[in-house]
Amino acid sequence: MPTLYKQLWISQLQRNFYPDTSFLNPIPNKSALVNNDKVNLQEAGVDPNVLINNDSYPISVSKRDDNPIEIELDLFETENTLVRRPETIEYSYDQMEDVIKGHRDSLRVKTAERAAQAIAPAADTENTPVIPTTGADNGDGLKRLLPADIIKLKRKFDDLDIPFDMRYLVLHPNHVEDLMLYDLDIFKDIVNIVNGQPKNFAGFNIMQFTKNPRYDKTNLQKVAWQAINVDETYCSFAFYAAEIFRADGSLHMYSKIDDPEE
pLDDT value at position 44? Predict the structure, then answer.
């Protein structure tokens, strides 16, 4: 397959990779900071104090120390798909899209699952609250999510002065079910996207994802990525979009021209 074909197929694979319904879509893209599949950025120092009715001059100078951070990107690969006569398919958009769709869909799910694992807090702290649900038993030994639980999380975000327009809550489908059972009229469409924007409740932009991280039921600590834990539960997670980022590294396509008569 000539290089031109490779570039066109890669462009098609990247198109609309983060749809409006994805919780990754509102997260700032820092791909410009990627070099050799690593993100190079600075950890900002402490913000300056604000002086009110100051009468002491000159104003003191505080030093800001920014610490360099290097983050290596994860590598995601899909299994190979044999394509007969790729030069013919290249000139048909529908055929090309049909070939690429399966790879794009698989990558979307797996990268979003990995991102959710990274975003969700490791454990309950002052700056990363973990709120247990308090509703009735759902039949599986787990307590249902109540609106009051979301409001409690709102208070935690309020205490941290997180801007309302940058708050996102990604609900597990089981928690969406809990809210619908609590009040069907209010919550039946809570995760719908309207004009490209998620619905809002209690100051959170509400979205939904099926592959949220898992937590240990006994200590409410996040279960490690792809680990096996017999005493675990699903979760919904919230985040401040300005404090996290996504980055796309280099995208490669390896191809082999096969004899159509093979």
Answer: 46
Phi-psi region of 64 (alpha: psi -120 to 50; beta: other; left: phi over 0): beta
Q: Which long-range contacts (CB under 8 A, 24 or more apart) does 101-105 make?
A: 103/13, 103/78, 104/13, 104/17
* Torsion 47-156-129-22 (CA) sign: negative
Q: How remote is the C-alpha of 250 from its chain's centroid?
A: 19
Q: What is the dihedral of CA 167, 171, 175, 179, to 10 degrees?
A: 50
Task: Name the nearest CA neighbour of 132 among 151, 121, 145.
Answer: 145
Q: Mention every residue, 6+ apart, whose C-beta is less than 8 A from residue 227.
A: none
153 phi and psi angles, rounded to 5 deg: -65, -35
For the chain, how many residues are written?
Answer: 262
Closest C-alpha among 167, 177, 190 to residue 119? 167
pTM assigned to the model: 0.77
Q: Span 214-232, mean pLDDT?
A: 90
Q: Identify whether 58 is preceded by a cis peptide bond (ω within 30 of 0).
A: yes
Do 207 and 137 touch, CB atoms closer than 8 A? no
